[in-house]
UniProtKB/TrEMBL annotation:
One of its GO terms (biological process) is phosphorelay signal transduction system. This is Response regulator. The keyword Zinc does not apply. It comes from the Bacteria.
Length: 428
């Protein structure tokens, strides 16, 4: 800022406030003249009115800061004028003083009920009048400061509201982009069907699920849950999605396959991400994950569990088993222990992988859904498959929480569909 501008602002700040305007209302012109001389000498701007109705017109045109009115006047008394004065649509508060010859408490109560701020008992001395106006000045200054603060607060709230609307629009777009990270919601590989579910608790979240083909007979399947919520978790999720995308030159698991080697095994992939988090990320964020390598010809599945909830295996006969020992999250310590799992999906079996937002869903009484609740949901919906099963599961969780989910929900359902049997036709 240039010096001349600073000098101008200083002069503006030091400029004295305009004088207060006082309206004198009395049917006695002589009485008004006495008060007017004293007030003008004290620096006030003075207007005069000989009746209550004349005073109201002046109040509408000038909005005086003070009204000093005699109690007894023809046509419109002082208290009646005060009532109408209070009913006017004003931009600021007006201080009303009633002059009366009667100090009876009942009259004072009536004046207060009419809206008067102060009373002066006739005869009124000049020093007393100026002292009462000085007291009224303090009240007007407080009112003006409050009004100014309210105006600033209102303007700030409007700016916050505009910023919130802009953020809301951005988050809605971010939600669309994040949902787009899950390129395919389902896939069929041989007799195996994959179904995905992703439901953020807010606009955006830290969960990610997906799959990609590794070769002619294998498919990679992943489920991630980044710690925390909101933008930070969503940004890390987006970066991890790039490393697990279907593009062979970006997908960490497929880089070795480009050089003629086998794809990276699940445990090595988890270790790669752990090193990346510790060496490249300047954040306290970590994530849990399950990455599985499924041979969809044989049903053999090798999997790494890194702090993610236990996958649930439901056999064809309805039995439910929890798989894995847990393992450590990714990005916490330099040499974590991940759990490596191998199993075979037989015809009719299915494996459900979920984030902790499901088993940690809480009802209004504060009780967790837990593993038992998830088992009950799986048994209840055993006759459903694919997305129908996942949607029914999500609905059950929402009903349990009464719609108040605090965490994201994501799931991967891997189903080994039994091959259709050939029924021979007998000829008679």
């Amino acid at each position: 800022m240039k010096a001349p501008n600073r000098s101008l602002q200083t002069r503006q700040r030091q400029r004295p406030a305009p004088p207060r305007r006082v309206l004198l209302v009395d049917d006695s012109r002589a009485q008004r003249q006495v008060f007017a001389i004293q007030l003008r000498r004290a620096g006030y701007e003075v207007s005069e009115a000989g009746s209550g109705f004349e005073a109201l017109e002046i109040c509408k045109a000038q909005e005086p800061d003070f009204v000093i009115s005699d109690w007894v006047m023809p046509q419109l008394s002082g208290p009646e004028l005060c009532q109408r004065f209070r009913a006017l649509d004003r931009n600021k508060y007006g201080y009303f003083i009633l002059l009366t010859s009667n100090s009876d408490s009942a009259d004072i109560s009536a004046g207060l009920a009419a809206g008067a701020d102060d009373f002066l008992i006739k005869p009124v001395s000049g020093p007393e009048l100026l002292a009462r106006l000085s007291a009224g000045e303090r009240m007007l200054r407080i009112e003006e400061e409050l009004r100014s603060s309210n105006d600033m607060l209102r303007a700030t709230l409007e700016r916050l509201h505009e910023a919130q609307e802009a953020m809301e629009r951005d988050l809605c777009e971010a939600r669309k982009l994040q949902q787009g990270l899950v390129r395919e919601r389902s896939g069929r590989f041989g007799h195996h069907e994959l179904s995905l579910l992703l439901r953020p608790a807010g606009h955006i979240g830290g969960d990610l699920v997906g799959f990609f083909p590794i070769g002619a007979d294998r498919v990679g399947i992943y489920a991630l849950d980044v710690s925390g919520h909101g933008v930070t978790a969503a940004l890390l999720t987006a970066q991890l999605s790039v490393h697990l995308s279907g593009s062979a030159d970006q997908n960490v698991a497929l880089r070795a396959a480009q050089m003629g080697h086998d794809a990276v095994n699940p445990a090595a992939l988890a270790q790669f991400f752990n090193n990346m988090m510790l060496e490249e990320m300047t954040t306290d964020t970590y994530f849990t994950m399950i990455y599985a390598d499924l041979n969809h010809v044989t049903g053999a599945l090798s999997m790494v569990q890194a702090g993610h909830p236990h996958p649930v295996l439901q056999r064809a006969d309805g039995r439910i088993e929890r798989i894995g020992n847990g393992g450590m999250p990714v990005g916490v310590i330099e040499k974590p222990i991940f759990d490596e799992i191998s199993l075979t999906l037989n015809p009719g079996d299915r494996l459900l992988i979920t984030s902790d937002g499901l088993i940690e869903a809480t009802n209004p009484a504060g009780r967790l859904l837990g593993e038992e609740g998830l088992d009950a949901i799986m048994r209840t919906n055993a006759f459903l498959t694919g997305h129908a099963f996942l949607e029914s599961m999500a609905w059950s969780v929402s009903e349990y929480c009464r719609g108040e989910r605090l965490d994201d929900i994501s799931a991967v359902l891997i189903e080994h569909r039994a091959a259709a049997e050939t029924v021979p036709i007998r000829h008679r």
